[in-house]
Amino acid sequence: MLELVPRETNHDPDQESVEEPVSKESLLARIAGGDQDAFSALYDEISPRVFGLIRRLLVDYSQSEEVAQEVFLEIWQSASRYEPSKGGAATWILTMAHRRAVDRIRASQSSRDRDVKIGVRDYVAEYDNVSETVEVSIEHERVKEAMTQLTELQRQAVTLAYYGGYSHSEVAKLLSVPIGTVKTRLRDGMIRLRDELGVAS
Amino acid sequence: MSDRNELHLLAGAYALGALDDTDRARFEEYLLTSEEARTEVASLSDTAVILGLASTPEAPPAGLKGRLMAQIAVTPQLAPPGGTDAPVPTAVPGADTTAAPLDNAEPSADAARAIRKSSESPAQAKATARWYTRPATVLLAAAAAVALFVGGNLLGLANANDGQQLATKFAELTSASDVQRSVSPVAGGGTATLFWSLDLERSAVVIDKLPALPAGKTYQLWYIDTAGAKPAGTFDAARSGSTVRVLDGAIVSGDTVGITVEPSGGSKKPTTKPIVAIPSA
Hints:
The complex is a heterodimer of chains A (201) and B (281). Chain A is mainly α and 201 residues long. Chain A has helices spanning 24-32, 36-58, 61-78, 89-107, 116-133, 138-147, 152-162, 168-175, 179-197. Chain A is 67% helix and 0% strand. The N and C termini of chain A lie close together (10 Å). With 281 residues, chain B is α+β, with helices and mostly antiparallel strands. Chain B has two domains: 2-53, Arc Repressor Mutant, subunit A, CATH 1.10.10; 63-279, no CATH class. In chain B, the strands form two sheets. A four-stranded antiparallel beta sheet of chain B has the order 1-2-3-6, covered by helices on one side. A four-stranded antiparallel beta sheet of chain B has the order 5-4-7-8, with no helix packed on it. At the A-B interface, helix 2, helix 3, helix 4, helix 6 and helix 7 of A face helix 2, helix 4, helix 5 and helix 8 of B. Chain A: Keywords: Sigma factor, Transcription, Transcription regulation.
């Protein structure tokens, strides 16, 4: 069931662009026309977000740099494919960054450390510690708060899938639960987060 | 029905990017058939993006932007889906500098022919409605650009004149802390991008869509200041992709870089009107 949420809690991932003189959406439109200066401006604006997310997934610094380079090259090449009607520019770019990072993880599957129990504890614990160490975004606080509304299993499954880049079948193995359970927990968890974060549905 | 219910449960995993290729393909097929699933996935994908925004922002490595700016200068773009017009490069600062005054500047019939050759036939225009250039060329150019800049592997540069040495010089230039760039349109179509570093006293041009010249002719680079034009090397157009050329000699603050068409071996002074002139200020 999709619930109506009060308007003031609606959150658009791209709303932060509203007050800027040049929106990321209009920069993308100019980039699609070959405007290198617009690309430069977009890079300045969003690269810390892109790199931060990729680093979260890959951890390794030089691999993260390579993937960030791939992402921005893809932005340059396919800016014309961005459709504003389907979502904001930050949504388009961060979705791309996440997918590229996950692809990189899956490609180097064999070399990845899969020490199950320790891995899970580290991952989940790491999430809680970030706020104490570095600059904290508003979204970080909101997500941290919303995460507390999830069951332990939902939270672990969502965290491993999104920030760990694990597939749903890997999450099932890591958490020692049936794959069907993981599917439903991922969906329940995301619906709960959506409603807690006030994402319009 | 139970199949559909089972598929619908994948919405969360899909939004999180947690499906393998097989399941993702199955789910995307299902998405085509269910408005409800599409709506749910859209909202869950937005939610996933907020998870992404919740990651701690981190400044990327300092050299990344310089490499990307150099890379995009040689990387073709996709045209809009289903569009009939290829994206048109927009006007750039310094765009009105095509005709810098030069000593003995005189239009050459060969240059004019060479430039006309670069304008596209209707059939080519149709092909480039999807790509700036042929798909195979695009992929090669992109692969070359990636090979050039990723992981210090400098092979695959479109212009093979100096191979490794050129690639190294170019990479050093575009990684310089004071690297600057300026874009100007080339007579006959396309753009030329000048990269320069006064610290390294080095400059390079990247020219897209440069037509090949007939036998007996060559492109020549010039450093131009108020005292006149100094030769900075001759070169041929790359067989495919963008032409990259590091200039001979040292760039001085305020120099304009020009390109003319000259007899093979080059000239001491420009004998034709430049096809492009790019100010470095």
